[in-house]
């Protein structure tokens, strides 16, 4: 299982009749290797959930092929369902039951038998720090606890692939951190995860590889670092004490700039190619002009910038 | 275990989920079991005095089987609400992504709802007996009458699943619940259809609810002035079997298709 492809989608198309139900896919390709976390990143309506629903056999594709662990999602649905776990956008647990009752029920539905279901439930409750709340009705759980229980429910039978669809949407910051640490644990345990999110930070924090989705097509794919490099230049950020100096500094930075210089109040961002040289030259020029900046830093582009660059309006896919 | 064996086992696991709901929220389910008794007392008290009956006969002889049938119709709301909630909360999606057959999910709903209806009928029958209602044709005929009632409930299950999966959200369920009332009233559940204007009486007679109410009255040996003159009036028992079977034949495939193509 070292370099085996667990998820493979080629040219998947899906159109919703009427077009109001969700975003379609227009030739969606994806490859996910075993034991990795892949982030499917895109704005609302890019088709993230559609992709997950097709890969988890909940929705039929119009054309193209998709396979999980070598099993075709269309023709071998039962084999696929035996190998996947799904955590949807809504915590799919029974609110009237307790946390333990939920897990035992899902254990039985996974055909573990009663005794094994109870043992597995207790293991998972422990692993997701829910042992204390095990006997409580889920409607009394916080958002973060629900998502954790939801994750636990999808891990009853160790799946080859776990689909996690926007796991932190609607959670407060504390809940988000709880869920992140739960997902990191899974990854340490070797589970292959396909995570959809519209939060760049989330993809950056959790994923080994990121596929950026726009209008149903993957527009960029790679490790977070590769994607940042793909955008090209690094940035030299300057923060000035006196906003009056801005024009003089922009003039000094002009020869170094590899693109448009951005100015926001007393902050100047200069796209640069030759990182170290640019920093040295800029520092010298400022020194000679007797301008003391509050801050001068060199940085990679943020994933935000890559994201806006690739998915923003007017950029061809 | 065979595929069918697993479907049964999984169906029972899913049905037990509903039984656990009853245990966790006893107030809710007790209310739903006693609500038909409340209707029995209310309509018995409201309308019973205003009607003429031969010496020694009480309105409850007519009304109790009517409320039996009505409580089967109201069971539809429970099915609908449960189905819509599971769909909206993503529980249905989780069931669908598990390695079990979709038959099990429906079977679970079926077992739970039929158990619920059996309890409803037992509570209601006990109340009816206390109020003076009796069956007069022996126990086997009475059991057959209860069978007709449960057959109606069985047919309504498919309509409940179909509507529950079709409506947009839980709010729409409320609208359907409001529509259930006129369907309940426009039948022989409360009064003989012969007392209505001719055109309205005809519509009411062909209401599947009327066939079940009138048909079960015949088996219980309770009076029903509706059971005259027209074909549907004199063949109520047959209509009470055919009607639900037709409804099932229409709505079972429809709800199965809805379930397969859920695409929210």
From TrEMBL, chain B:
Pfam families from the UniProt entry: ABC2_membrane
GO biological process, one term: response to antibiotic
Chain coiled-coil ranges: none
UniProt keyword Kinase present: no
Membrane-protein topology: Multi-pass membrane protein
Keyword terms of this UniProt record: Antibiotic resistance, Cell membrane, Membrane, Transmembrane, Transmembrane helix, Transport
Compartments in which it is found: Cell membrane; Membrane
GO MF terms, alphabetically ordered: ABC-type transporter activity
GO CC annotation terms, alphabetical: ATP-binding cassette (ABC) transporter complex
Main location, first listed in the record: membrane
Membrane-spanning residues: 27-50, 62-83, 104-131, 143-167, 179-200, 238-256
Domain called ABC transmembrane type-2: residue spans: 27-262
Family to which the UniProt record says this protein belongs: Belongs to the ABC-2 integral membrane protein family.
PANTHER family: NODULATION PROTEIN J
Protein name per Swiss-Prot or TrEMBL: Transport permease protein
Species of origin: Kribbella capetownensis
């Amino acid at each position: 299982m070292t370099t085996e492809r667990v998820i493979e989608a080629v040219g998947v198309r899906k159109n919703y009749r009427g077009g109001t139900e969700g975003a379609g896919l227009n030739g969606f390709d994806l490859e996910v290797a075993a034991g990795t976390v892949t982030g499917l990143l895109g704005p609302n309506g890019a088709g993230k959930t559609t992709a997950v629903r097709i890969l988890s056999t909940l929705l039929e594709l119009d054309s193209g092929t998709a396979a999980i662990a070598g099993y075709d999602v269309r023709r071998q649905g039962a084999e696929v369902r035996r190998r996947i776990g799904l955590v949807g956008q809504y915590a799919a647990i029974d609110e009237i039951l307790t946390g333990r009752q939920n897990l035992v029920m899902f254990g039985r539905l996974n055909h573990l038998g009663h005794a094994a279901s109870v043992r597995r439930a207790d293991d998972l409750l422990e692993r997701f720090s829910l042992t204390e709340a095990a006997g409580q009705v889920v409607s009394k759980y916080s958002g973060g606890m629900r998502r954790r229980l939801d994750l636990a429910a999808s891990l009853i039978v160790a799946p080859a692939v776990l689909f996690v669809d926007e796991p932190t949407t609607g959670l407060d910051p504390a809940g988000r951190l709880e869920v992140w640490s739960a997902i990191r644990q899974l990854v340490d345990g070797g589970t292959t995860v396909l995570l959809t999110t519209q939060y760049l930070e989330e993809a950056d924090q959790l994923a080994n590889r990121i596929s950026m989705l726009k209008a149903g097509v993957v527009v960029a794919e790679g490790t977070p670092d590769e994607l940042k490099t793909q955008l090209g230049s690094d940035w030299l950020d300057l923060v000035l004490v006196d906003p009056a100096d801005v024009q003089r500094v922009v003039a000094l930075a002009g020869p170094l700039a590899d693109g448009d210089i951005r100015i926001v109040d007393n902050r100047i961002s200069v796209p640069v190619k030759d990182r170290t040289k640019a920093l040295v030259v800029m520092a010298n020029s400022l020194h000679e002009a007797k301008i003391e900046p509050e801050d001068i830093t060199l940085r990679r582009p943020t994933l935000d910038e890559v994201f806006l660059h690739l998915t923003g309006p007017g950029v061809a896919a | 275990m065979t595929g069918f064996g697993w479907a049964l086992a999984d169906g029972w696991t899913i049905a037990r989920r509903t039984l656990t709901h009853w245990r966790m929220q006893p107030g809710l389910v007790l209310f739903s079991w006693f609500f038909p008794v409340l209707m029995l007392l209310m309509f018995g008290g409201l309308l019973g005095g205003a009607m003429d009956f031969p010496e020694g006969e009480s309105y409850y002889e007519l009304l109790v089987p009517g409320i039996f049938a009505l409580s089967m119709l109201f069971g539809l709301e429970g099915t609908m609400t449960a189905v819509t909630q599971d769909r909206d909360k993503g529980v249905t999606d989780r069931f669908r992504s598990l390695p079990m057959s979709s038959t099990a999910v429906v079977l679970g709903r079926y077992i739970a709802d039929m158990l619920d209806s059996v309890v409803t009928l037992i509570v209601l029958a006990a109340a009816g007996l206390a109020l003076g209602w009796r069956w007069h044709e022996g126990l086997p005929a009475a059991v057959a009458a209860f069978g007709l009632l449960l057959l109606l409930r069985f047919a309504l299950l498919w309509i409940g699943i179909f509507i529950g999966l079709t409506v947009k959200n839980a709010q729409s369920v409320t609208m359907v619940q409001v529509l259930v009332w006129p369907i309940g009233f426009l039948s022989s559940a409360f009064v003989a259809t012969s007392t209505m204007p001719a055109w309205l009486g005809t519509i009411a007679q062909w209401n599947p609810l009327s066939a079940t109410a009138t048909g079960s009255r015949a088996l219980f040996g309770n009076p029903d002035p509706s059971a005259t003159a027209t074909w549907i009036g004199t063949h109520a028992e047959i209509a009470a079997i055919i009607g639900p079977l037709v409804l099932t034949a229409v709505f079972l495939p429809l709800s199965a298709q809805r379930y397969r193509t859920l695409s929210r």
